[in-house]
Amino acid sequence: MSSSQGIFCVGVDHHSTSLGVREALASFAGDRWIQHLIEHEGAGEVVFLSTCNRVEIYGRSEQKGPEIMSSLARSMPTDLGSAWKEARGVYLHEGIACWRHLAEVATGLRSMVVGEGEILGQVRQAYAASREAGGTGTSMHSLFQSGLRAARAARAAAGFGRGDASVGRLAAEAMGELLEGKERRPLLLLGSGHTARSFAMVEKELELGNQGILISSRSEDRANALAVEVGATTVPWEHWARAVDSAAVVVSALAGGELAWTECKGNGPELLLDLGVPRTLTALRRAFPQSKWVDLEELARRSEVMPESLGAIHRAEEVLRKHETYFAMQRTARIEKVQAFRG
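^ thats the sequence. predicted structure below, dont judge the formating
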């Protein structure tokens, strides 16, 4: 495949695809499939992006339109291909529309929380992981470097990142509303990544009434570092289930799917707050049906664009338009150069 062939993005997000479907696709997404798709001629280059809000495949292909998705599906393992073909709300962006979509995603304009601070790093990490796995070439390098550069400029112009617009903040605020005025035992936070830290920092800042925070993570070093930062107590990962007994709230900011749960003591936590994709606390939800339940779909219903955000969005879009024009001019010049060389 020539590097002058079309770039594309195939994906689903929280706007039109249910969390259950996104969970299924996210469970298949990963670096291990990058070379598989390339070797089976699904695309010439491949980058997977999987976050709380979306699961997307960026790539380069000789195909156009629906044939891009068909080619990808044929090259995928059967279960993965079937999941993509059966998913509702799948979108396809090609050429400059692909660049525009990536830049808006990295800026935070397409996030559940507009301007959220985690997405830029997630896009950067997705590209770096694919490059390390041998999935990128000239086209993906150009697309992601340009898109990330534009997103950084747009976020600066909009003022994104000066506060803490994030899923973690939205979750902490939702918890405060749901449990207002109620006596609460300690909060058990599972995870120690960006979302977990954001949640813990807001919970501490707003002093939402918990008697303390317990942090348990598969990464002991990161759990200890976060615990020091927010004044929490760590729980060894092998004992997280035991800590549920004393928790009024259990918050999961983990990835990796459902956590096994066999213990069933007492009435359980007052609130289960699951920020994972795939969800991780579903077994606890079955064990404690009386507990309040909040997941990303519920948070999406609570989130909305505030009037004061519209000006920031407009400033970001103006910056992206300028970068889009520059990217289109550069890409046209490269294609003409290749064609002239071949001619």
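The domain at 6-162+309-342 is CATH 3.30.460.30 (Beta Polymerase; domain 2).
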